[in-house]
Every structure is written in structure tokens, then in C-alpha cells.
């Protein structure tokens, strides 16, 4: 539980690095009213949402879809907490979203995509848009419907032009970068065969590796997430049939080989989130030996640097 909250906090701050703050373009939120037909709800039962800014000129029939990031919730309590925030309910989302970075409409800041149709998919399921389950014990209800939210948004966008796209790029950062891995093939299948589909993950390549005490901290975290949110049935089928532990197919390293859609992976060498939560989680550094190193790589001992180097390259 403590770990879940810490991960959420770090990812929230990470999410704000993923987009650079530049010019201001505020884009209205669209609630997906048909989502209830297929049971697609945010954690609290509210309707899912996205923001669309139309393309123009040479980009008018190209589409960039970006998953919002923001950690995960992998137990009932952390999901109940999240259901009262913008990452668990459209009731708390800002209705105007700042489109910057890859979503900017300024050609000088975003030369490749400024004139494309650009969509931000709001994240309110806590399971990287991949769950399909419901918790209801009589007093508390939680919808784990990320997969349905993804489907509802795509169904809504197809008649708005996505269905005739010339090019489509699926992207996302952090938990949204993982979503991009998990849904890349789905997007390819949802669009006509003559649409050029590609995907991009920014800081979404979460590794199944042991922490410094040899514990599989991240594996345990994802296993709980997959179980709680009913994600397993939505993971890559070739991967889940191949692995003894199908839940591990939440990690891109196990299903990347089965993907056929062109994919661009962007991950920094010393990914801060994975350094602080997968390699050296608080549970693995009770004495605080890594505290200084975590604050600044320049303060790491040679031994710590070796470990960092080995982990990210091994
Ligand atoms: C339902 O779950 C919530 C959260 O775990 C708990 O606080 C509540 O007591 C539970 N209600 C019942 C009837 O078990
Ligand atoms: C794809 O094929 C359809 C049907 O032939 C055609 O209408 C459409 O313009 C094509 N799209 C692209 C991007 O070539
Ligand atoms: C390793 O993981 C187990 C199971 O999650 C946990 O009980 C144990 O405290 C962990 N050990 C360390 C050093 O984190």
C-alpha cells in the first residue's frame, strides 16, 4: 500500500516532465457518452474522456493518439483513493487540457505533428487502459475497465476521421508509455490495412528485474495489478500461452517479440522511476545507503554506479 502511494506520487511528478511546458493551447474535454453501452467507466463509475484538437492542411488525415500517464493502483484501498482524483474519475478532471510538446499546434515546437489530429486519452482506470473487472462488496464499488475505455474512445474517434486515417501514431509516457505497448497491435487491427500505424513509448519500458536485495519488487507490483484489474485476458495471447506465469506479459520485454507494428522505444539510461522503485525501492534500502545516490547520480559511490550500470544494461 505504501509502495503503491509512493509509486503514484513519483509517477505524477514524472508525468509533468514528459511534456515540456511551452506555448498555451487549451483543448476542451469530450466525455464519451456511448461508453456506458459497453461498460466503459472510470474507477468511480463516471464516463471516460479525451481531448481532440483537429488537424489541418497536410496533416488533416493523420492522427496522433497520446495516452495520459500517472502510475497505477493495484489494491482496493489505493484504487478507492484514486477514484476520488482526476486519475480515477472524470468528475475531477480539468475540462481544458494544455496541449504542449508532441501535442502542440506550433510548427516551430512540434514540426512533425503540429497539423495532425491530436488526441489525449485521459487516464482514469489505474491499470494502463487494460483492465476488465469490477469490485463490489456491497458498500464499495470500483470499475476496472481500462480495456473498455480504450475501445470506447476508439469507437468514438473512428467516425470522426480516425477510421480513414492516412497515418496513425500511438504514444504515451510512463504508465501511458506502457499503454502504448499494450495497445499498439489493437490499434493496428482497428484501422484499415492501408493506414500506416506506428507506436511510441516514452519511459514505458518497465523491466522485470530484481531489486538490489534480489526481490522481484516490480514483478509483485504488476502481478497484483493484473490480478486485481482482470488484465490477463487482455494481454498478448501468444505471450500468455507461452509463459508459465502469464501475468508477466504485462512487461513489454516478454511480448515485444510478438509485435509486428513498427515501434519506437524511448527510455533514458537511468530512468528515475525504475531506479527509485524497481532497482532500489524503499523496502530494499532501509538503512538509506542509497539516499544520496538517489538524489543525485553524481553522489553515487563507484559500486553503486556499477550496480546502476549493470541493471540498466543487463
Ligand atoms: C468493502 O470494502 C471496503 C474497502 O476495502 C471496506 O472498507 C468495507 O468495509 C467493505 N464492506 C464490506 C461489507 O465488507
Ligand atoms: C484506403 O483504402 C480506401 C478504400 O480503397 C480508400 O478510400 C482510402 O482513401 C485509402 N486510404 C489511404 C490512406 O490510402
Ligand atoms: C522481499 O519480498 C517479500 C515478499 O514481497 C517481502 O516479504 C520481503 O520483506 C522483501 N524483502 C525486502 C528486503 O524487501
**If classified by CATH, what would the architecture of the largest domain be?**
3-Layer(aba) Sandwich
Strand content: 15-25%
The unreliable regions are 12-17
Per DSSP E runs of 2 or more residues, the count of β-strands stands at 10
Number of domains: 2
Sheet with the most strands: spatial strand order: 4-1-2-5-3-8-9-10
The major beta sheet can be summarized as:
8 strands, mixed
What's the CATH class of the largest domain, please?
A: Alpha Beta
Overall residue-averaged pLDDT value: 93
CA gyration radius, whole angstroms: 19 Å
**Tally of DSSP helical segments:** 10
Helix proportion of residues, in percent?
A: 25-40%
* Overall geometry: globular
Q: Output the structural class.
A: alpha/beta
Order of helices and strands: HEEEHEEEEHEHEHHHEHHH
Ligands in the model, by name, code or SMILES, are: 2-acetamido-2-deoxy-beta-D-glucopyranose
CATH fold title of the largest domain: Rossmann fold
> How widely separated are the two ends?
29 Å
Question: What does this 3D model show about the protein?
Answer:
By secondary structure, the chain is α/β, with parallel strands linked by helices. It has two domains: 24-267, 3-Layer(aba) Sandwich (Rossmann fold); 272-314, no CATH class. 32% of the residues lie in helices and 16% in strands. It has ten helices and ten strands. It has helices spanning 2-18, 76-82, 146-157, 175-190, 217-229, 237-242, 252-255, 272-279, 291-295, 302-313; strands at residues 26-31, 49-53, 62-67, 96-98, 117-121, 133-136, 141-144, 167-172, 196-202, 263-266. The strands form two sheets. Strands 4-1-2-5-3-8-9-10 form an eight-stranded mixed β-sheet, covered by helices on one side. Strands 6-7 form a two-stranded antiparallel ribbon. Helix 4 (175-190) links the parallel strand 8 and strand 9 (196-202). The protein starts with a helix and ends with a helix. Mean pLDDT is 93; it is low at 12-17. The protein binds 2-acetamido-2-deoxy-beta-D-glucopyranose (NAG) (3 copies). One 2-acetamido-2-deoxy-beta-D-glucopyranose is lined by residues 76, 137-140. One 2-acetamido-2-deoxy-beta-D-glucopyranose binds at residues 166, 192, 194-195. Keywords: Cell wall, Cell wall biogenesis/degradation, Hydrolase, Secreted, Signal. Its EC number is 3.1.1.-.
Amino acid at each position: 500500500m505504501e509502495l503503491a502511494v509512493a509509486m503514484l506520487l513519483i509517477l505524477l511528478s514524472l508525468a509533468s516532465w514528459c511534456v515540456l511546458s511551452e506555448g498555451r493551447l487549451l483543448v476542451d474535454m469530450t466525455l464519451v457518452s456511448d461508453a456506458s453501452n459497453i461498460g466503459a467507466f472510470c474507477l468511480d463509475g463516471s464516463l471516460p474522456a479525451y481531448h481532440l484538437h483537429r488537424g489541418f492542411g497536410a496533416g488533416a488525415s493523420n492522427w496522433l493518439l497520446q495516452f495520459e500517464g500517472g502510475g497505477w493502483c493495484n489494491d482496493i484501498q489505493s484504487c478507492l483513493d484514486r477514484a476520488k482524483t482526476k486519475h480515477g474519475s472524470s468528475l475531477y478532471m480539468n475540462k481544458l487540457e494544455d496541449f504542449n510538446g508532441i501535442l502542440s499546434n506550433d510548427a516551430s515546437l512540434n514540426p512533425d505533428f503540429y497539423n495532425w489530429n491530436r488526441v489525449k486519452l485521459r487516464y482514469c482506470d489505474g491499470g494502463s487502459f487494460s483492465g476488465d473487472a469490477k469490485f463490489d462488496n456491497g458498500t464499495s464499488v470500483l470499475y476496472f475497465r481500462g480495456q473498455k475505455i480504450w475501445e470506447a474512445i476508439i469507437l468514438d474517434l473512428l467516425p470522426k476521421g480516425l477510421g480513414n486515417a492516412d497515418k496513425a501514431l500511438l504514444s504515451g509516457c510512463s504508465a501511458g508509455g506502457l499503454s502504448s505497448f499494450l495497445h499498439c497491435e489493437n490499434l493496428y487491427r482497428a484501422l484499415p490495412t492501408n493506414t500506416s500505424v506506428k507506436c511510441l513509448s516514452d519511459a514505458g519500458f518497465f523491466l522485470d528485474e530484481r531489486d538490489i536485495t534480489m526481490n522481484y519488487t516490480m514483478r509483485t507490483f504488476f502481478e497484483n495489478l493484473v490480478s486485481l484489474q482482470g488484465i490477463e485476458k487482455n494481454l498478448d495471447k501468444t505471450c500468455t500461452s507461452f509463459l508459465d506465469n502469464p501475468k508477466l506479459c504485462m512487461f513489454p520485454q516478454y511480448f515485444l517479440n510478438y509485435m509486428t507494428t513498427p515501434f519506437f522505444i524511448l527510455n533514458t539510461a537511468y530512468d528515475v522511476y525504475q531506479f527509485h522503485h524497481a532497482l532500489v525501492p524503499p523496502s530494499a534500502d532501509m538503512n538509506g545507503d542509497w539516499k544520496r545516490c538517489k538524489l543525485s547520480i553524481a553522489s553515487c559511490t563507484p559500486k553503486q554506479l556499477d550496480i546502476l550500470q549493470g541493471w540498466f544494461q543487463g
